[in-house]
Design goal:
heterodimer, A: 265 residues, Alpha-Beta Plaits, two-stranded antiparallel sheet, 10 helices, 8 strands, 13% strand, B: mainly alpha
Amino acid sequence: MNDIIFAVGLVSAIGLSVGLILAIASAVFFVPKDEKAERIQEILPGANCGACGFSGCSGYAKALSEGKAKVGLCSPGGAEVAQKLDDFLGTKSENVEYKVALVHCLGSFDNTSNKMNYQGIHSCSSALQLSGGVGSCFYGCMGFGDCAKVCEHDAITVCNGVASINPEKCVGCTKCVQACPKHLISCVSKRQQAVVRCSNCDKGAETRKVCKTGCIGCMRCVKACPKGAVRIENFHAIVDPEKCIGCGKCIEVCKQGCITMFEPD
Amino acid sequence: MKGLIAIFLAAILTENYVLCKFLGICPFLGVSKKLGTAFGMSVSVTLVMVMATAATWPIYTYILVPKNMEYLQTLVFILVIAALVQLVEIILKKLIPPLYNALGIYLPLITTNCAVLGVTMLVIEKGQADASFGYVQSLVNAFGAGIGFLVAMVMFAGVRERIEHCDVPESLKGLPITLVAASLVSLSFMGFTGVVENLLA
């Protein structure tokens, strides 16, 4: 009987003493918690996508609570989360700009062709290992849909050898931007604007050989733009979204048809 | 010194806790998907293994044995390990927040890691079989066990990253192919049998 009491006493004593040590340690090593940041993090969608430019939702919440970041950077949250954050922080955010992903390639089978009959694993990252991809255009979409596989909102479809993103469904989480091994996808503001749908960095003559709708860097769009928003870089046109007013003059003059009007609404 | 090196190498290669003793399989399969997390998990396991052995060995030798309470070993050890993990967590959170954030959920998970409990109990078993296996040897063994865990985790993370890019048959996708791969890696570790003894003979 004594043995039992001693055993119980021993275990209780050890338990109590480690409990005491833990209690002291937690008092000595107390870390003040940022309750505001925690509340904000509960409002955020928790996608941890990094579209806001911070390291995940906790990073953005911390920056918000310290007043270092603006409300409305959260693309997946959209207007709903921005409204909730405004209510919580007592701020007023105006015309929050939402971003959606866009594929900068129009290389469907009608416009370009494959240089090989690829029989390997059905993924862009695998096909890329084989002499830089299957398409005759080195820069173009391979159409195996690595982007569609990572999309959680069913916004990406691969049709006729090229991926396209439905701006209605896209929340701008940037998962596809990271998934594309050719870096063809980028996030653009969700408003009417001209977008260049080609990423070919070869000279015009080379581009013409591989794709019917590739940008050849002819400068017509640069001359046509009233705002000076278009420039040629690496032998293809780039539209500055800050300057573009969506007038469509560059689209009218483009002979290759690689500039399109982005009309999400 | 030679003896300590032999103990250290044996704990990594011939007595690898994951691949030869099959302890700690849960984190081995759970967190070996990515190299970074596998490494973080193994470092914290190593830390806790050494600290747990450092704490449990004196408790067993100087409290439980004199009172003939050896049967309380499992209970007391779990208590001590759980408290230790909590203590490490509190201290890390205050002193090295980046490491705390990097380890994240893995640190509290180690509380229930059977490899840690296994190390603390097996070193005591070894000490009973061989009188020269004392406190220092136990600590070296625990450290070696942690490094062995790290080797197994990091190696297997590499294997799994390769599997990701393979065309696995539909019925074997996920856990089945992981288990097949784990058994093959474990089999390859059988090849180390006798290496340490002959290396330092």
